[in-house]
Amino acid sequence: MKNSLQLAGVLAVVLLVQVAVRVGAQQGDRVPDITGSWERLGFGARLTDAQRQFLPPAGGGQPPLKPEPRKEWQARVQAAREADAKGQPLATNATACLPEGMPAMMGATFPIEILQSKGQVTIIEEAYTQVRRILLDRPQKALADVEPGFYGSSVGRWEGDTLVVNTIGVKESVRFQNAPHSPDMKITERMHLVAPDILWNEITIDDPATLEKPWTVTYAYRRNPAYTLLEYVCEDNREYADDQGRQKIRIPAPQK
Fold it and tell me: pLDDT for 133-169, tens place per residue?
């Protein structure tokens, strides 16, 4: 009888330990809540001292382009500067009401909204109502199977408290900071909370065809629970590109 009681006691302890391990694992696997409206930290709004400490380290700068792509990029930048100085800005994708695409939309010149759901994280930017879908825990497609687009194919997974996202298939006409890229460009994002309402997104662009080395830019966002994204539709399309590639505005004739 004594041995039976001892055995029962040991089994009970083992069972309790197993339950504790399972509960701890479930708690450890719980992903952060990044749902909500976010605006870029330090962009437009004045920073408080508390927020300033969460600005990411300075980085990014000029794209580390190889010689030939660098010449193309420098020529584009110089042409844009000269056109601006003359008051005749060059047409861009925005002139044609086209979205920024990836990774430029993550620069959040307008607020973004993040929605977490089963198997997916959805990111919406107010500007042009841009939407990208990050499919979770799925293998990335082969590049040949991806139809090139503004946002490409994005798959992600949670590594602890960090959402790691891989994106391929961004069309070549979509430019980030005017830098050219090849069809083989890959974008890796690492998103994690550095404070309850401060999110960092470390964006690394890999493109051996055009870059000397990977190019990393980090953005910080502040959660703003009081903000709801507004409708942004480029409907009047008053801007257009003339035959010299300059941005022009159609001014309708006054009604009689």
Answer: 999 999 999 999 999 999 999 999 999 999 999 999 9
7: tokens are: 């055995």
Question: pLDDT by residue (tens digit) across 38-76?
Answer: 999 987 667 778 888 888 877 678 999 999 999 999 999
Greater confidence (33 vs 254) lies with 33
Find the range with the poorest average confidence among 105-109, 215-219, 237-241.
237-241
Burial of 47 (0-12, 13-18, 19+ CB in 10 A): middle
CB-neighbour burial class of residue 249 (10 A; exposed 0-12, middle 13-18, buried 19+): exposed
Q: What pLDDT does 241 receive?
A: 58
User: Nearest to residue 218, comparing CAs of 44, 51, 59?
Assistant: 59
In contact, 161 and 32? CB cutoff 8 Å: yes
Please list, in sequence order, all residues whose beta carbon lies within 8 angstroms of the beta carbon of residue 131, skipping any fewer than 6 positions away. Answer: 122, 123, 124, 151
Q: Are 125 and 105 spatial neighbours (Cβ–Cβ below 8 Å)?
A: yes
pTM, entire model: 0.80
Q: Residues 6 or more apart from 256 whose CB is under 8 A from it?
A: none
Alpha helices in 148-243 (DSSP H): none
Would you call 179 exposed, middle or buried from its count of C-beta atoms within 10 A (0-12, 13-18, 19+)?
Answer: buried
Give me the amino acid identity at 206. Answer: D
Closest CA to 123 of 140, 104, 146, 145: 104
Please give the single-letter amino acid code of residue 239: E
Helices H, strands E: what count in the chain? Answer: 3, 11
- DSSP per residue, 62-73: S--B-HHHHHHH
